Amino acid sequence: MKRIALLTAASLALVLPAEAAGAILPGTQPLTRTGDLSAQMHEAATRDIEARIADAPRTRAARWKRDASSREAYEQSVEENRARFRGIIGLGDGRGPVVMERFGDEENPALVAETKTLRISQVRWPVLTGVTGEGLLLEPLGTVRGAVVVLPDADQTPEQAVGLAPGVAAESQMARRLAENGFVVVVPVLLDRSTSGSGDASLVMTNQPHREWIHRQAYMMGRTVIGCEVQKVQAAVDWLEKRHAGKIGVAGYGEGGLLAFYAAAADPRISAALVSGYFKWRQQTAEEPLYREVWGLLREFGDAEIATLIAPRGLIVAYREEPRVDGPPPALKGSKGQAAPGRLSTPPFAEVEAEFARIGTLLPPGFQARQLVRGDGAEAVAAFAKMLGHDSPLPLSAEPPTDRRRAFDIAGRQLRQVRELNDTIQLLVRNSDRTRDAFFLHKLVPELASVPWNYHLTFPPKSPDAFVSAAKDYRRMFWEDILGKLDGPLPPPNPHTRQIFEEAKFTGYEVTLDTGGEGFAWGVLLLPKNIKPGERRPVVVCQHGRNGLPSETIEGDKPAYRNFAARLAERGFIVLAPHNLYRHEPTYRMLARKAHTIGATHWSVILRHHQQWLAWLGSLPQVDAKRIGFYGLSFGGESAMRLPSLLEGYALSICSGDFNDWTRKVASTRDRKSFMFTDEWEIACFNMGSTFSYAELSYLIFPRPFMVERGHHDGVALDPWVASEYAKTRYFYDQFGLGEKTAIEFFNGGHTINAQGTFDFLHQHLQWPAPSPQP
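Predicted structure:
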């Protein structure tokens, strides 16, 4: 195959025929870019997302309509913001009645410790079905002045936080200081950063911290580990509110500071918050551990904006050294599922001071009592207590409590908390098909929710056009709410080309298109040589998989691709082999992570690229814009589900080596094939598991032709996953009398293009060769 790629135009003369050297496609400009265009694409996309993150503090102001004319008016004016905040941290589940159970046995009595001023009990309380909070309850022996939930850092136990065990300096034992001075205090245990419960011993263990292990599965289901633990705080507040009159506060350090901050923002019942070792300028949140990820946070909320959700209630920010995290835990022998990168370190005081001062630019003077202090000792706790109505010194006794328990299993308690959340989220995963049906299919076609058992049933639902019209809102939701849609118009494509292939049956051009800013799309266009003047032909977009390149679909006879793009061009199809943003793994994964902070994904960028490809292809005189098909393998198959479901310019789609029960694939902790046991930590889209799996995406492709290509030995999934998910697609098409527009081909092979039934499908539904005129 005569080819040269990624060289200067002058170098083309060394390989291509003289008449082809430097040739460009008519109507385009010469392509002179050199170097690794794949890397340049990824870098440009990352810079674009970083620019949008940098601009977020300015643009988020439009999402707020604060009215500080009265407390009532203010609460009403920020309620929509509060509702969105609750949504993105996953506070969607209701709680039942709360009973604070003191529990113990002969070895580990319920009354853990008692001093002259307080008693400490080990407690647990219901939060959600199958989920309990667990920790310590501190009760003053004198007059009760108020109630507080105190949250230690993730790697601090409640025992350390109250002085029952070493690890927290006495002056930072906020819970003990408050309880000794009249406050009822609940100290929950948090999921820590160890890894002993992250995995399934019968399958494989991972090196993901417990917080990440729960977060990764929860995120797919529209929850977060943050939201799960805020629910535990709220359940404790439910009990405190019922049992103790007066104000309720929350206080926390490190990860506990985050939770105290978020709980106070989400729940107006909380009268004041003390946030220690957490508050700062939040624009670099993508560099923190994955378990801190909140979908779209920076579009609307920096720490200053979250503080305004607490207003006019009180806020103390205590600056102190934050818990240090130098990256993911080291991988243990035999473990898989590499944890995501992420670090925590203490910001300069000036950074915290500047963000704290920014609150004052969002609220009128005097509207909120707030204070920035150094350290979380007596001064910070006293200022916090004053906001709860206790205006007097808070001395700390010289009598630390002594633990009466002889064999309490702290590690076992941690594993119970991990297992409870894991099992609860896995129940959501297992029931997700019913959740999605209720969300989408049964709303649009309610007849399908109650089809009777009738062997002679004939079912005439709505017309395809009526369904497509009704599904427009779901297409919008999938784009905007799940994948994320980037604002801003696309520029003219401004194509640049250079010839890189000269074959007997086709000519190939390398192509770039502008996508806005520094961004560009890059790919290879193959034009058959026998196209007649004025003739318009169908196009097949041939999409490579992860770590692939456009050229690999054309030449080299790679086992995965089998030159399928070139073979289709030889059959007379116009072929585009575009490059997608999933080659350089560290780069595209961080691109996705950064994009998540502003409510986008790397698919948001890829969609803009393909909008440009469709616009440009439709402008070519050789192309029939109504006959552009999509055919992708692996990540290209993932593209075949996401892109045509949203871009109606694709007339059909073929998903190869990827179609399966996507929710199970991403979030299951019971299946070895799940991404939970791999290093694809960026793969989940927030709440996709409760809204759209692959059957639902095929409904968005409907009534256009859709096909699945599946090798029996493809390790991406199992045949039963693929078959059961596709059965929903086929059933759906059949109900509209359009079963001939969808197909699945199983073949005895692996993760590869088979190029048998799929080629026939392309010829049939893209009508190539064109059908002979009827006599």
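Summary: The mean pLDDT is 94.
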